[in-house]
Design goal:
Elements (H helix, E strand, L loop, with lengths): L8 H16 L4 H11 L5 H13 L4 H7 L6 H13 L2 H58 L6 H32 L3 H15 L4 H22 L4 H9 L5 H15 L4 H4 L8 H13 L2 H59 L1
Helix pairs in contact: 1-2, 1-6, 2-3, 3-4, 4-5, 5-6, 6-7, 6-14, 7-8, 7-14, 9-10, 9-14, 10-11, 13-14
Length: about 350
Amino acid sequence: MWQRSKPKLPEIILFWNYLKHFLEAGLPMVLAFHQLAKVLVKKPWPQILKRIEIGLLSGKKLSQSLAEEKYVFKTDVGEMIAIAEKKGNYPDVIAVIVAHLKWQLQTRQSIHNALRYPIVLMFIMCVIFYLILHHIVPQLQEYLAAMGHQSLPLATQILLMVSSAAPFGFITMSLFGLFVFLSFKINLSVFKKSRWFLEKQVLRMPVVGRLVDKLMIINFIRVLSILLDSGGDLLVSLHQSIKVVPNAWRAAQLEKGKNRLIQGEKLSTALSDVLKRHPALSLLLDLGEQTGKLPVILNEYVVFEMAQFKNEVDQRIQSIQPLLILVMGGMLIWVVISILLPMYDQRGTWGLT
C-alpha cells in the first residue's frame, strides 16, 4: 500500500562505485555483496544487500535480484545489468550506470538551486500574510468596532473579507495537498486515477508543464541512448526506457508509440504523438534510423537539450524573482492603506465635529 522508504541517490551512487571497485579487484559477485554489507551499514542497506546476496546464492541473476528491489533500483539499471550479464563486462556497464546516476543528481541539484530563492521569498510572503491576518486585522476590527465606522474604504473591506475567508481557504488547501500527497504515495486504484488526472493537467500548464515534459523526455531519451549503446534491442530498450517516465499519462502515450513500433512503423513515426512538443527530436530520430547512429545522435541531443533546459529554467527564475518582490511590496502597501484610510476618515470626522 505505502511505498517503501529508499536510500538517497548519493548513497545509490556510492553503492555502485563500491561494487565496481570490488568486481575490478577480482571478487566474485556474492563475495562482493558480502563485503558491501560491511561498508554500507546505514538503514535500509543491510536488509537490501542481504536479500540480494540470498538471491544470488539461490541461483538468481543479479538483474533478477535487483528487479525485486524496484524501489531502490530502477528498471533501466536492471536492464543494463542484464546486458552486462550477457557480455560479462560488469565494471564497464556499472561505470555507465554511475555516470547516468551522477547526471541525474546534478540535474536535481541544478533545479533545487534555481528554485531555492523563489521558495524562500514565497515562504516569507506567507509568513507576513499570516501575521497580518492573525494579528493586525483583528486589532483593526476592534478599532473599527470601537469607533463605530459605518462605511469603510474598499481596500479595508477587501482586507476584512480575506481575513474572514482565510481559515476556510487554509483548510481547503490543506485537504487538497493531503489528497495530492496520498495520490502519489498510496498505490490504490482510486488514487491512481486521480494521479493520472493530476499528471495530465500538470503537463498542460503553460510554462511549468512544458519544462516538466521537456525534462522527462530528456531523461527518457538518455536512458534509451544508454541502453542502445550498451547493445540492447530497440524494442526492449524502448520498453525499459518508458518505465523511467514518472508521469503515468505521458508513459501511456509512449506505450502506444511502442505498440505502433511493434506493428512495423518507424520510431520517429511511432512516437509522433509524444514528439509534438519536440519537433527537433522527431527529425533526429528519423536521421538516426537512416544512418544507423541512433545512440550517438540521441546522446548529443540530450547534452544540447539539457544545457538549453538549464538556461531556460534560470531565465524563468530570474524573471519570477522581481515579480515576487513586487507582489510582496504591493501586499504590504495594500495592508498599510487598508489600515490608514479608516483612521484618516475618522480623523477627518473629528475635525469636522
